Each structure stands twice: as C-alpha cells, then as structure tokens.
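Submission sheet (multi-component)
Chains listed below:
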Amino acid sequence: MNAVLVDTKTRILEAAEKLFGSKGFDATSLRDITAEAEVNLAAVNYHFQTKDSLIDAVIARRIDPINRRRLALLAAAGEKPTIEQLVEAFVAPVVEQDAPPMLAMMGRAMANPDLFLPRIFKSHLREVADRFGAAFERAAPELSAAERMWRLMFMAGSMAHVLSWGHIVGAMTDGVCDASDRKDVTARLVRFVAAGFRAPESDGAVMRAKS
Amino acid sequence: MNAVLVDTKTRILEAAEKLFGSKGFDATSLRDITAEAEVNLAAVNYHFQTKDSLIDAVIARRIDPINRRRLALLAAAGEKPTIEQLVEAFVAPVVEQDAPPMLAMMGRAMANPDLFLPRIFKSHLREVADRFGAAFERAAPELSAAERMWRLMFMAGSMAHVLSWGHIVGAMTDGVCDASDRKDVTARLVRFVAAGFRAPESDGAVMRAKS
DNA sequence: GTCTATAGGTTGATAGAC
DNA sequence: GTCTATCAACCTATAGAC
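Outcome: structure written.
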C-alpha cells in the first residue's frame, strides 16, 4: 500500500532505477519498465519523451541531492580538512544513500564512461570535481597533480565497485562481507583510500614536509 | 595487411572484443560485430552458436593467459612476498596487457556482477582467488578476514576503474593523466593499494605486531 | 493524462544452396 | 566454411480516441 499511491511519473522513475541497476541501461527495455511500474507503455513517452532522457532524469533525481550533501559536508569540515574528512565527504553521501536500487544503478553508470562523461560529469559533477580537487590539493600538496588525479580515480573506482557489487558481495564471500551496514562500509572505504592518499609518491623518496 | 590474413573465427573475436569494450555487451549487436570484422552474419552462429557463448569465448581468450601470468608472478615472489609484490602480481598482468581494446572490455565485465560472477569468476578465477587470498592472509595477518576481503574488493575496483576509463582519462584530465604508459599506471596503482592495505584496521587502535 | 493500436526498424538465430 | 534469404520476436516511438 505504497507504490499505488505515488503518481505515474514517479513510479516510472523508481521502476527504471531498479531495472537499470539490476540489468543495465541497454538491457532494460521500456516494456520492462512499464511492466515493473504497472503503467502503460505510452506513459513513458508522454512523461519523458525518449528512453535517453528517461535515463537522464533517473540519474539527475539522485545525483543532485548527493552533490548538495557532498558540498555541505565539505563546508562543514572547515578550513583545513583532513584527508579522511575529504574522502568521507565524497563517499558517504553515495554509499549511505537509503535507496539500495540506486546504488547498483550508480555503479553501472560510473563504469560506462561514454554515458558518464558527457551526460553526468559535464552537467552534474563540475562543481563537486572542482571543489574537491582544490581541497585535495590543499590537503596533499606534496603530491604532483598527476598523482593526485590518479588517486582520485582510484578512490572513485573503489567506491564504484562497492556500488556495483554491494548487493551480491555477501553471497559471494559467504557472509564474511556485509554491505548492508553502509556506515561500516564507508568507514572501511575511508580508511583504505585515505591511507592510499598518504602513500609517498616515489617508492624510494622520502615525503616532503607537509604544511 | 594484417587483419585480412587471420581466419574468420579470430576476426570475429577481435571485432567483438573491440565493440564490447567501446559500446558494452548489450549495446553491441552481432551485426555490429560482423560489419567490423567484415564477415558474414551467419559465420558468428556457425563458429560460436549464440551471442552468449561468443561473449564467453571473447573473455576466456584473454583471462586464461592473464591468470597464468598472475600465478607465475606470485610463485616468483617467493615464500614471503611483500604486499607490493602481491598487488603487482595481481594487477600488472591485466593493466600491462598489450591489447587496449581488451582493457575496456574487462572493465565493463568487472562492473557487471551478474555476468562476472557466474560466467567468469566461477569458471576462471577460483584458483587465482584462492591463492591470492591465502597469500594476502599471510602478508597481512593482523587484518580480520572481513577487512581483508573488503580491501581486495577496493583493489579490484581501483583496477577496474582504470580499465574502464583508461582510454578517456587523458582527454578528461587535459593530459595530466596518461594511461598509455601502462607500467607507470601499474606503479601508481601498486603504491596506492599497498598503502591502503597497510592501514590499521581500527581508527584508534595501534597495529598489532606483524610476523 | 491515460489508453489502444500500430508503424517502422532492429534483433538473434536458422534453413538451405553452394 | 561461407553465403543469401528469411523468420519470429522484440524494440522505440507516435498517432489519435477517450
């Protein structure tokens, strides 16, 4: 007694999100979505015109609040945030989202550069990338720009993999890993990534003094 | 004066690998593949029966040599390998493969658990997972089993993201990151992941003595 | 806003000649 | 082994009644 009360447009968004996450964007047909949402096929085109703009709408609905929360956490961390605070501000708003189907969908989106770069990054992630890029530069000024960029990619990759595999990691590890406690997952991710960021850049070299 | 000399079956495998990497498994039709390979459509079904078993063949062709090399590097690292040696033995055979189209395809495969777990992990990765799992346990015995598993996932995720984004990271970062020097990418990945593995498990706790 | 009906194209797979 | 021709199923998108 819940899904029947929300309007058609939202039902489509929720069904699409769930199926995009579990089957992928290309493998999910509009008919799959309308069947899951118990809605007429033509309603999709009425509300969203095309499948591509439905994909955009499904993603935008989630990523905008996430990015607002990221920037809020970044601001709350003050003038000189630690690397742990920066990683957590970036990761927690995604990993701790209380919408499991959304996690798998975001994982798929991040693994698809041809979708992600033009349709998500350029329109929804510019400000977050700039602000966090600058913050990481202040927090780890001893790193070269290239190394810092690569480490941001590694961070994004660790997070994306958790999103893609979260729903299945429990079964795969016979229960050793449990992704349902999302605060716990965030804490593990933050520990790992922050330590990676603190690694000296050159194998033999000694780290330069930090400010 | 190369592709025309190899046989039809190999031409199909190479075209499929390239397109699976650039467009994804679902978005690539058999007709896309036969056009790229300059081969007749019916040849695909003659040599591979179905699209699904073509996918399996494309993946198996690459992953088996990779896994042999992983196990060889693991053996070459001796009785007490460092964490750096373990990470490199796992990562280098993939990242340093001299077959760019294969990298993007593997990145996509790793981001698709429903394809990867039953059709790749269970049939091609069991031995590698067991051997590396045991080696990491000996190299980082102070970690709980759960934390060690999570960190292996983070490692896999960092690597997968490099595979998916490698072909585009140069353009995205205005040339700051260059994925074409694959030894360099491996070195950065090893530094980052090994440092993450060495992080103490509990934020406040002191690390226990290592053997 | 929601429906039926359907257009117009693409898909994976096969049958059968050569 | 390779080809042409074709099938049945599926797809996205739209037109038009209600």
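Remark: Chain A is about 75% helix and 0% strand.
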